[in-house]
Amino acid sequence: MAINWTEAKIAEVVAKVLSEVNGQGPAGDRNWSGSQFHGRKLIGVYETMEEAIEAASAGYAAIRSMSVAEREKIISSIRSYCRAEAHIMAELGVAETKMGRVEHKTAKHILVADKTPGTEDIVAEAKTGDCGLTLTERAPFGVVGAITPSTNPSETVICNSMGMIAAGNGVVFNPHPGAIATSNYAVDLVNRAVYAAGGPKVLVASVIKPTLATADVMYKHPAIRLLVCTGGPGVVRAVLSSGKKAIGAGAGNPPVIVDDTADIEKAAKDIIDGCTFDNNLPCIAEKEVFVFENVADRLISGMLKNGCVMLTREQADALAKIVVVEKTDPKTGAVKKMVNRDCVGRDCRVILEMIGMHVGPEIRCAIAEVPFEHTFIQTELMMPILGIVRVKNIDEAIELACKAEHGNRHSAHMHSKNIDNLSRFAKAVETTIFVKNAPSYAGIGFGGEGHTTFTIAGPTGEGITSAKSFTRLRRCVMTDHFRII
Fold first, then answer.
1. Which of 206, 274, 305, 346 could bond 173 through an S-S bridge, CB–CB 3.0 to 4.6 Å?
2. Class of the CATH-defined domain 255-451
3. Tell me: the pLDDT tens digits for 60-70?
């Protein structure tokens, strides 16, 4: 398939489509669903999972004949569309899920557009010797089946799509039921961008009403060669038990340690900036703090200067009973403690009103000194609430922080100028991401070096996923020849 679309032509198409989309009114008008946006039918969204897989398979067949340069033209087009419509997707995401902040979600989409690796990530390896040449190349799986979350819905769809397409795959999504419209808007955006760059009309696909049943069809369908899940423990377990090659990005409960060598004022600001980014929805965000007792008062004072309110122990206990609720399993009768979804990703002032506290919009985080066993320490809340525990020394800090992380091996953070302390914690906690002296989001390239991803595969070991994560290795051997020394 020949592509003769120039960058200028792509920019022209992006501008035209963006003008049409903007003319359809703000996301808050609620004239949107899993299949349409302000009357415009979303491309690549189907009634059944079987239809979606068939469409993605046809898209995969189309890009198999395309060169790497042609695939890169497609990735560049997706970047352009993502930048152009970042604010629209941010508005839609907040309107649909009631989680997060528009300005932060906009920034996350720009991050995805700018720092998601493309085809440059697909690098072949060659080995020569007395017996000739062996070439190992990264090839596509075929059609990838992906589960995406409600916390970062369009960000994950676009980031996954870019990496999977760069690797040469087609993609079918089963989005979180709480973010169908936002996820499917992103599917539509990717397809518009692909087609604008000369690719097939549908390369990524989804369903109008994703359910556990549609996910099960995806898990079992013979055309799906790789499964990728970004979500909670339940869906990750389902993917890993599918019998297919799977990449799982699971939960975390990232701790942060502050020792007495840290720049305390900077640490206070960095921790609150990271903890409150998109109202604590990113899995990498700071969830609990362990601070040396000889600098704890200074750290808390710094946090209060950065948009925090300090809760009393009584207020913290009352709030804990609201943000984590008990639910009875109708089948087994077992009682489980679960995070209250009505609180996840909500503004701090909205959450505090649930216990009768009224604060202004300038308050972005509630902090509280609590014991290690407290809900604020032990549970990944994904909301702007931060529990703080005082510790005597680095030994106690590392011990408690590792216990609070619960062996998820997801993310951890530390503020210190003591190289020995930093090294000891990094080695002990064994997380995929370890951020030193910066807000947590530096770990995914926002203000830090390195590429970004919204699929952090700790459980299956791929780590900060990128295009090469969605490839399989193929070996080509030539004996005796193609060695020139």
1. 206
2. alpha beta
3. 999 999 999 99
